[in-house]
Amino acid sequence: MLKEHIEKDSVIRLISHNDADGISAAAVIANALKEEDVQFHTTIIPRLKEDMVNQLRSEKYDLFIFSDMGSPFIKEFNTYKHDVIVADHHQVNDTEAESNVVHINPHLFGIDGSKDLCGAGSAYLAVRDLDKKHLAHFALIGAFGDMQGQGGFTGVNSTILGDAMESGVVEIHEGLKIVSKASEPIFKSLAYTFSPPLPGISGDLEGAQEFLEKRGLSYGIKFTDLEDEEKDLLKDALIEINPDIFGDCYTVPKEVPLLRDLEEYSYILDACGKNKKQGLGLSIALGEKDQALDAALRLQRQYRDQIVRGLEWIKREGAQQLNAIQYLYSEDKVLKSVMGTIASIGLSVELLDNSKPVIGLSRLHRDIKISGRTTREMVDRGVNLGKALQDSSNNFNGTGGGHDIAAGAMIPYEAKDNFLHLVDEMVEYQLNND
Ligand SMILES: [Mn+2]
Protein backbone atom coordinates (compact mmCIF):
# COMPACT_ATOMS: atom_id res chain seq x y z
CA MET A 1 0.00 0.00 0.00
CA LEU A 2 2.78 2.41 0.93
CA LYS A 3 4.68 1.64 -2.26
CA GLU A 4 1.60 2.36 -4.38
CA HIS A 5 1.13 5.71 -2.67
CA ILE A 6 4.80 6.61 -3.14
CA GLU A 7 4.52 5.79 -6.83
CA LYS A 8 1.30 7.85 -7.16
CA ASP A 9 2.99 10.88 -5.54
CA SER A 10 0.41 10.86 -2.77
CA VAL A 11 0.50 13.34 0.09
CA ILE A 12 0.75 11.44 3.34
CA ARG A 13 -0.45 12.30 6.85
CA LEU A 14 1.65 10.87 9.67
CA ILE A 15 0.44 10.83 13.27
CA SER A 16 2.67 9.54 16.02
CA HIS A 17 3.07 9.41 19.78
CA ASN A 18 5.13 11.99 21.72
CA ASP A 19 7.37 9.64 23.71
CA ALA A 20 10.82 8.43 22.65
CA ASP A 21 9.32 5.38 20.93
CA GLY A 22 6.69 7.43 19.10
CA ILE A 23 9.18 10.07 17.94
CA SER A 24 11.50 7.25 16.75
CA ALA A 25 8.54 5.71 14.91
CA ALA A 26 7.86 9.04 13.20
CA ALA A 27 11.59 9.29 12.44
CA VAL A 28 11.63 5.93 10.65
CA ILE A 29 8.65 6.80 8.46
CA ALA A 30 9.60 10.45 7.90
CA ASN A 31 13.16 9.57 6.89
CA ALA A 32 11.86 6.87 4.54
CA LEU A 33 9.35 9.26 2.94
CA LYS A 34 11.94 12.02 2.68
CA GLU A 35 14.28 9.66 0.84
CA GLU A 36 11.46 8.82 -1.57
CA ASP A 37 10.70 12.51 -2.15
CA VAL A 38 7.17 12.11 -0.88
CA GLN A 39 5.29 15.03 0.63
CA PHE A 40 4.07 14.40 4.13
CA HIS A 41 2.66 16.22 7.13
CA THR A 42 3.54 14.96 10.60
CA THR A 43 1.77 15.56 13.91
CA ILE A 44 3.08 14.19 17.18
CA ILE A 45 0.54 13.97 19.98
CA PRO A 46 0.32 12.74 23.59
CA ARG A 47 -2.58 10.37 22.91
CA LEU A 48 -5.01 9.54 20.14
CA LYS A 49 -8.57 10.32 21.11
CA GLU A 50 -11.83 9.58 19.40
CA ASP A 51 -12.56 13.22 18.49
CA MET A 52 -9.24 13.45 16.65
CA VAL A 53 -9.90 10.18 14.82
CA ASN A 54 -13.20 11.63 13.63
CA GLN A 55 -11.72 14.99 12.76
CA LEU A 56 -8.93 13.48 10.64
CA ARG A 57 -11.54 11.64 8.63
CA SER A 58 -12.39 14.85 6.74
CA GLU A 59 -8.79 15.89 5.98
CA LYS A 60 -7.71 15.67 2.37
CA TYR A 61 -4.79 13.29 2.35
CA ASP A 62 -4.35 10.10 0.34
CA LEU A 63 -2.87 7.97 3.06
CA PHE A 64 -2.81 8.17 6.85
CA ILE A 65 -0.08 6.48 8.84
CA PHE A 66 -0.51 6.10 12.61
CA SER A 67 2.58 4.95 14.45
CA ASP A 68 3.01 3.85 18.08
CA MET A 69 -0.77 4.37 18.36
CA GLY A 70 -4.00 3.59 16.53
CA SER A 71 -4.73 -0.07 17.24
CA PRO A 72 -7.78 0.66 19.41
CA PHE A 73 -9.39 2.57 16.50
CA ILE A 74 -9.35 -0.02 13.69
CA LYS A 75 -13.17 0.04 13.69
CA GLU A 76 -13.16 3.78 12.91
CA PHE A 77 -10.38 3.52 10.31
CA ASN A 78 -12.36 0.79 8.53
CA THR A 79 -14.98 3.47 7.75
CA TYR A 80 -12.43 6.04 6.45
CA LYS A 81 -12.54 6.76 2.73
CA HIS A 82 -8.73 6.91 2.74
CA ASP A 83 -6.10 4.24 3.04
CA VAL A 84 -4.68 3.83 6.53
CA ILE A 85 -1.57 2.13 7.88
CA VAL A 86 -1.48 1.49 11.63
CA ALA A 87 1.93 0.50 13.03
CA ASP A 88 1.37 -0.01 16.74
CA HIS A 89 2.43 -2.38 19.51
CA HIS A 90 -0.11 -1.68 22.25
CA GLN A 91 -2.81 -4.17 23.16
CA VAL A 92 -5.41 -4.83 20.42
CA ASN A 93 -9.17 -5.50 20.39
CA ASP A 94 -10.88 -8.00 18.08
CA THR A 95 -11.91 -5.69 15.22
CA GLU A 96 -10.35 -6.91 11.99
CA ALA A 97 -8.94 -4.46 9.47
CA GLU A 98 -10.87 -3.92 6.21
CA SER A 99 -9.08 -3.69 2.85
CA ASN A 100 -8.32 0.05 3.22
CA VAL A 101 -6.44 -0.57 6.48
CA VAL A 102 -3.08 -2.28 7.01
CA HIS A 103 -2.69 -3.16 10.67
CA ILE A 104 0.81 -3.97 11.90
CA ASN A 105 0.86 -5.07 15.53
CA PRO A 106 2.92 -7.81 17.22
CA HIS A 107 -0.07 -8.89 19.34
CA LEU A 108 -1.87 -10.01 16.15
CA PHE A 109 0.92 -12.55 15.73
CA GLY A 110 1.20 -13.68 19.34
CA ILE A 111 4.33 -11.57 19.81
CA ASP A 112 4.78 -9.61 23.05
CA GLY A 113 4.56 -5.89 22.26
CA SER A 114 6.05 -4.90 25.59
CA LYS A 115 9.38 -6.64 25.03
CA ASP A 116 9.85 -8.06 21.52
CA LEU A 117 8.73 -5.16 19.30
CA CYS A 118 8.06 -1.47 19.93
CA GLY A 119 6.07 1.15 18.00
CA ALA A 120 9.16 2.31 16.10
CA GLY A 121 9.84 -1.36 15.29
CA SER A 122 6.34 -1.78 13.85
CA ALA A 123 6.85 1.42 11.86
CA TYR A 124 10.19 0.10 10.63
CA LEU A 125 8.49 -3.08 9.42
CA ALA A 126 6.16 -0.88 7.35
CA VAL A 127 9.11 0.55 5.37
CA ARG A 128 11.76 -2.19 5.72
CA ASP A 129 11.16 -3.81 2.35
CA LEU A 130 11.37 -0.51 0.52
CA ASP A 131 15.13 -0.96 0.89
CA LYS A 132 15.25 0.87 4.23
CA LYS A 133 17.34 -1.40 6.42
CA HIS A 134 19.71 1.51 7.06
CA LEU A 135 16.90 3.07 9.15
CA ALA A 136 16.80 0.09 11.53
CA HIS A 137 18.63 1.99 14.29
CA PHE A 138 15.56 4.18 14.82
CA ALA A 139 13.57 1.04 15.63
CA LEU A 140 16.20 0.16 18.24
CA ILE A 141 16.21 3.70 19.67
CA GLY A 142 12.43 3.33 20.04
CA ALA A 143 12.93 -0.02 21.75
CA PHE A 144 15.28 1.57 24.28
CA GLY A 145 12.74 4.35 24.78
CA ASP A 146 10.16 1.69 25.52
CA MET A 147 12.52 -0.10 27.97
CA GLN A 148 12.83 -3.08 25.61
CA GLY A 149 16.55 -3.17 24.85
CA GLN A 150 18.06 -2.81 28.30
CA GLY A 151 18.53 -6.51 28.94
CA GLY A 152 19.53 -7.26 25.34
CA PHE A 153 17.22 -7.41 22.32
CA THR A 154 14.81 -10.33 21.93
CA GLY A 155 12.21 -11.47 19.39
CA VAL A 156 11.59 -9.22 16.39
CA ASN A 157 13.86 -6.61 18.03
CA SER A 158 16.82 -8.95 17.56
CA THR A 159 15.89 -9.48 13.90
CA ILE A 160 15.91 -5.70 13.53
CA LEU A 161 19.28 -5.52 15.28
CA GLY A 162 20.48 -8.01 12.64
CA ASP A 163 19.28 -5.62 9.90
CA ALA A 164 21.07 -2.71 11.58
CA MET A 165 24.35 -4.62 11.84
CA GLU A 166 24.06 -5.98 8.31
CA SER A 167 23.54 -2.52 6.85
CA GLY A 168 26.50 -1.27 8.91
CA VAL A 169 24.56 1.48 10.65
CA VAL A 170 24.98 0.02 14.18
CA GLU A 171 28.04 -1.43 15.93
CA ILE A 172 28.26 -3.31 19.22
CA HIS A 173 31.19 -3.07 21.63
CA GLU A 174 31.66 -3.93 25.29
CA GLY A 175 31.91 -1.08 27.75
CA LEU A 176 30.55 0.64 30.84
CA LYS A 177 26.91 1.48 30.24
CA ILE A 178 26.95 4.89 31.91
CA VAL A 179 25.54 8.00 30.24
CA SER A 180 27.16 11.22 29.01
CA LYS A 181 30.72 9.87 29.29
CA ALA A 182 32.12 12.74 27.27
CA SER A 183 29.76 15.57 28.21
CA GLU A 184 29.23 15.54 32.01
CA PRO A 185 31.47 15.23 35.08
CA ILE A 186 31.68 11.62 36.16
CA PHE A 187 29.51 11.96 39.30
CA LYS A 188 26.69 13.24 37.11
CA SER A 189 27.25 10.46 34.56
CA LEU A 190 26.74 7.98 37.37
CA ALA A 191 23.79 9.73 39.01
CA TYR A 192 22.03 10.09 35.66
CA THR A 193 22.49 6.42 34.78
CA PHE A 194 19.13 4.83 35.50
CA SER A 195 19.44 1.72 33.40
CA PRO A 196 20.95 -0.52 34.41
CA PRO A 197 20.06 0.82 37.87
CA LEU A 198 22.80 1.57 40.39
CA PRO A 199 21.08 1.52 43.79
CA GLY A 200 22.42 4.30 46.03
CA ILE A 201 23.92 6.12 43.03
CA SER A 202 21.25 6.43 40.31
CA GLY A 203 19.31 9.64 40.83
CA ASP A 204 21.47 10.55 43.83
CA LEU A 205 24.12 13.21 43.12
CA GLU A 206 25.52 13.09 46.65
CA GLY A 207 25.53 9.29 46.68
CA ALA A 208 27.46 9.28 43.41
CA GLN A 209 30.01 11.80 44.75
CA GLU A 210 30.58 9.81 47.94
CA PHE A 211 30.97 6.59 45.98
CA LEU A 212 33.74 8.13 43.88
CA GLU A 213 35.47 9.92 46.77
CA LYS A 214 35.62 6.70 48.80
CA ARG A 215 37.58 5.09 45.99
CA GLY A 216 39.92 8.00 45.57
CA LEU A 217 38.50 8.91 42.16
CA SER A 218 38.09 12.52 41.20
CA TYR A 219 34.40 13.15 40.66
CA GLY A 220 34.62 16.47 38.84
CA ILE A 221 36.18 15.30 35.58
CA LYS A 222 34.59 13.50 32.67
CA PHE A 223 34.75 9.74 32.34
CA THR A 224 36.65 10.10 29.06
CA ASP A 225 39.35 12.12 30.88
CA LEU A 226 40.04 9.41 33.50
CA GLU A 227 43.33 7.49 33.32
CA ASP A 228 42.99 3.88 32.15
CA GLU A 229 43.79 2.59 35.65
CA GLU A 230 41.05 4.76 37.12
CA LYS A 231 38.61 3.53 34.51
CA ASP A 232 39.38 -0.07 35.50
CA LEU A 233 39.00 0.73 39.18
CA LEU A 234 35.64 2.37 38.50
CA LYS A 235 34.50 -0.51 36.34
CA ASP A 236 35.28 -3.09 39.05
CA ALA A 237 33.55 -1.03 41.73
CA LEU A 238 30.42 -0.53 39.61
CA ILE A 239 30.23 -4.21 38.66
CA GLU A 240 30.05 -5.00 42.37
CA ILE A 241 26.90 -2.87 42.59
CA ASN A 242 25.32 -4.16 39.39
CA PRO A 243 27.10 -6.58 37.02
CA ASP A 244 24.85 -5.42 34.15
CA ILE A 245 26.68 -2.07 34.14
CA PHE A 246 29.36 -3.63 31.95
CA GLY A 247 28.15 -5.11 28.70
CA ASP A 248 27.14 -4.49 25.11
CA CYS A 249 26.91 -0.86 24.05
CA TYR A 250 25.12 -0.15 20.78
CA THR A 251 26.44 2.75 18.76
CA VAL A 252 25.81 4.50 15.46
CA PRO A 253 29.40 5.34 14.40
CA LYS A 254 28.36 7.94 11.82
CA GLU A 255 26.49 10.03 14.42
CA VAL A 256 27.82 13.01 16.42
CA PRO A 257 29.07 11.99 19.94
CA LEU A 258 25.89 13.17 21.70
CA LEU A 259 23.73 10.86 19.58
CA ARG A 260 26.18 8.02 19.04
CA ASP A 261 24.84 5.71 21.75
CA LEU A 262 21.39 4.34 20.88
CA GLU A 263 20.13 4.37 24.45
CA GLU A 264 21.27 7.94 25.04
CA TYR A 265 19.67 8.95 21.75
CA SER A 266 16.39 7.63 23.14
CA TYR A 267 16.84 9.74 26.30
CA ILE A 268 17.32 12.87 24.20
CA LEU A 269 14.10 12.15 22.29
CA ASP A 270 12.35 11.39 25.59
CA ALA A 271 13.51 14.73 27.03
CA CYS A 272 12.19 16.52 23.92
CA GLY A 273 8.82 14.77 24.14
CA LYS A 274 8.41 15.29 27.88
CA ASN A 275 9.10 19.01 27.46
CA LYS A 276 6.57 19.32 24.62
CA LYS A 277 9.38 19.88 22.09
CA GLN A 278 8.56 16.78 20.05
CA GLY A 279 9.18 18.76 16.83
CA LEU A 280 12.74 19.37 17.98
CA GLY A 281 13.20 15.65 18.61
CA LEU A 282 11.90 14.78 15.17
CA SER A 283 14.05 17.39 13.44
CA ILE A 284 17.16 16.00 15.15
CA ALA A 285 16.19 12.55 13.94
CA LEU A 286 15.80 14.03 10.46
CA GLY A 287 19.37 15.29 10.62
CA GLU A 288 19.34 18.79 12.19
CA LYS A 289 22.47 19.51 14.20
CA ASP A 290 24.06 22.62 15.82
CA GLN A 291 21.40 24.74 17.53
CA ALA A 292 18.89 21.91 17.56
CA LEU A 293 21.36 19.71 19.44
CA ASP A 294 22.24 22.51 21.87
CA ALA A 295 18.57 23.01 22.62
CA ALA A 296 18.06 19.26 23.09
CA LEU A 297 21.04 19.06 25.45
CA ARG A 298 19.59 21.89 27.55
CA LEU A 299 16.28 20.07 27.72
CA GLN A 300 18.02 16.88 28.71
CA ARG A 301 19.88 18.60 31.58
CA GLN A 302 16.67 20.16 32.80
CA TYR A 303 14.78 16.87 32.49
CA ARG A 304 17.44 14.94 34.40
CA ASP A 305 17.28 17.51 37.21
CA GLN A 306 13.52 16.99 37.34
CA ILE A 307 13.93 13.21 37.58
CA VAL A 308 16.48 13.58 40.37
CA ARG A 309 14.07 15.90 42.20
CA GLY A 310 11.31 13.32 41.74
CA LEU A 311 13.44 10.49 43.07
CA GLU A 312 14.44 12.60 46.08
CA TRP A 313 10.74 13.15 46.73
CA ILE A 314 10.06 9.39 46.61
CA LYS A 315 13.03 8.78 48.92
CA ARG A 316 11.68 11.36 51.38
CA GLU A 317 7.96 10.60 51.29
CA GLY A 318 7.69 7.02 50.02
CA ALA A 319 4.57 5.68 48.30
CA GLN A 320 1.07 5.27 49.76
CA GLN A 321 0.37 1.59 50.35
CA LEU A 322 -2.79 -0.37 49.48
CA ASN A 323 -3.06 -4.18 49.65
CA ALA A 324 -1.74 -5.14 46.23
CA ILE A 325 -0.57 -1.81 44.81
CA GLN A 326 1.20 1.35 45.92
CA TYR A 327 0.62 4.84 44.59
CA LEU A 328 2.28 8.23 44.22
CA TYR A 329 0.18 11.37 44.09
CA SER A 330 1.28 14.92 43.53
CA GLU A 331 -0.07 18.28 42.44
CA ASP A 332 3.46 19.70 42.05
CA LYS A 333 4.10 20.80 38.47
CA VAL A 334 7.57 19.28 38.14
CA LEU A 335 6.71 16.00 39.87
CA LYS A 336 3.58 15.61 37.74
CA SER A 337 5.60 15.93 34.53
CA VAL A 338 7.95 13.06 35.45
CA MET A 339 5.52 10.82 37.33
CA GLY A 340 5.66 7.81 34.98
CA THR A 341 9.44 8.02 34.69
CA ILE A 342 10.09 8.24 38.43
CA ALA A 343 7.63 5.40 39.04
CA SER A 344 9.70 3.17 36.69
CA ILE A 345 13.07 4.28 38.01
CA GLY A 346 11.83 4.17 41.61
CA LEU A 347 11.06 0.48 41.10
CA SER A 348 14.31 -0.32 39.33
CA VAL A 349 16.61 1.45 41.82
CA GLU A 350 14.66 -0.14 44.69
CA LEU A 351 13.37 3.07 46.23
CA LEU A 352 9.92 1.47 45.84
CA ASP A 353 8.73 -1.99 46.89
CA ASN A 354 9.22 -4.29 43.86
CA SER A 355 6.44 -6.65 44.90
CA LYS A 356 3.66 -4.11 44.30
CA PRO A 357 2.79 -2.34 41.03
CA VAL A 358 3.13 1.42 41.38
CA ILE A 359 0.42 3.80 40.20
CA GLY A 360 1.53 7.40 39.65
CA LEU A 361 -1.23 10.02 39.70
CA SER A 362 -0.88 13.56 38.36
CA ARG A 363 -3.69 16.04 38.66
CA LEU A 364 -4.55 17.97 35.49
CA HIS A 365 -7.43 20.36 36.21
CA ARG A 366 -10.52 18.15 36.50
CA ASP A 367 -8.80 14.96 35.46
CA ILE A 368 -6.11 12.73 36.80
CA LYS A 369 -3.47 11.27 34.56
CA ILE A 370 -2.41 7.80 35.64
CA SER A 371 0.88 6.03 34.90
CA GLY A 372 1.13 2.43 36.03
CA ARG A 373 4.40 0.49 36.20
CA THR A 374 5.38 -2.92 37.43
CA THR A 375 8.19 -5.47 37.07
CA ARG A 376 8.61 -8.46 34.74
CA GLU A 377 8.43 -10.74 37.82
CA MET A 378 5.00 -9.36 38.76
CA VAL A 379 3.78 -9.82 35.17
CA ASP A 380 4.96 -13.43 35.35
CA ARG A 381 2.93 -13.78 38.54
CA GLY A 382 -0.22 -12.66 36.68
CA VAL A 383 -0.34 -8.85 36.80
CA ASN A 384 -1.67 -7.14 33.66
CA LEU A 385 -1.69 -3.39 34.28
CA GLY A 386 -2.98 -2.58 30.79
CA LYS A 387 -6.12 -4.57 31.48
CA ALA A 388 -6.49 -3.37 35.08
CA LEU A 389 -6.21 0.29 34.09
CA GLN A 390 -8.47 -0.09 31.08
CA ASP A 391 -11.26 -1.85 32.98
CA SER A 392 -11.06 0.28 36.10
CA SER A 393 -10.89 3.61 34.23
CA ASN A 394 -13.84 2.63 32.02
CA ASN A 395 -15.80 2.07 35.20
CA PHE A 396 -15.44 5.78 36.05
CA ASN A 397 -15.96 7.17 32.53
CA GLY A 398 -12.25 7.35 31.93
CA THR A 399 -10.00 5.74 29.34
CA GLY A 400 -6.93 3.60 29.76
CA GLY A 401 -4.81 0.72 28.55
CA GLY A 402 -1.32 -0.12 27.37
CA HIS A 403 0.94 -3.03 28.21
CA ASP A 404 0.91 -5.63 30.97
CA ILE A 405 4.08 -4.08 32.45
CA ALA A 406 3.39 -0.38 31.82
CA ALA A 407 0.07 1.31 31.20
CA GLY A 408 -1.75 4.61 31.49
CA ALA A 409 -5.21 6.05 32.06
CA MET A 410 -7.15 9.28 32.43
CA ILE A 411 -9.99 9.55 34.97
CA PRO A 412 -12.13 12.34 36.44
CA TYR A 413 -10.59 13.81 39.61
CA GLU A 414 -13.56 12.89 41.83
CA ALA A 415 -13.08 9.21 41.02
CA LYS A 416 -9.53 9.11 42.42
CA ASP A 417 -10.03 7.12 45.63
CA ASN A 418 -12.61 4.71 44.24
CA PHE A 419 -10.44 4.16 41.19
CA LEU A 420 -7.40 3.32 43.30
CA HIS A 421 -9.38 0.81 45.33
CA LEU A 422 -10.76 -0.81 42.18
CA VAL A 423 -7.29 -1.13 40.64
CA ASP A 424 -6.08 -2.57 43.94
CA GLU A 425 -8.85 -5.19 43.88
CA MET A 426 -8.24 -6.02 40.24
CA VAL A 427 -4.51 -6.52 40.72
CA GLU A 428 -5.19 -8.65 43.80
CA TYR A 429 -7.61 -10.71 41.70
CA GLN A 430 -5.06 -11.08 38.88
CA LEU A 431 -2.47 -12.34 41.35
CA ASN A 432 -4.84 -14.82 42.99
CA ASN A 433 -6.29 -16.17 39.76
CA ASP A 434 -3.23 -16.66 37.58
MN1 LIG B 1 5.56 2.68 22.29
Automatic annotation (TrEMBL):
Superkingdom of origin organism: Archaea
Protein name per its UniProtKB record: DHHA1 domain protein
Domain DDH: 13-126
Residue ranges of every copy of the DHH-CID domain listed in the record: 181-240
Domain DHHA1 residues, every copy: 327-427
Classification via PANTHER family: SINGLE-STRANDED-DNA-SPECIFIC EXONUCLEASE RECJ
Molecular function terms from GO: exonuclease activity; nucleic acid binding
Originating species: Methanobrevibacter thaueri
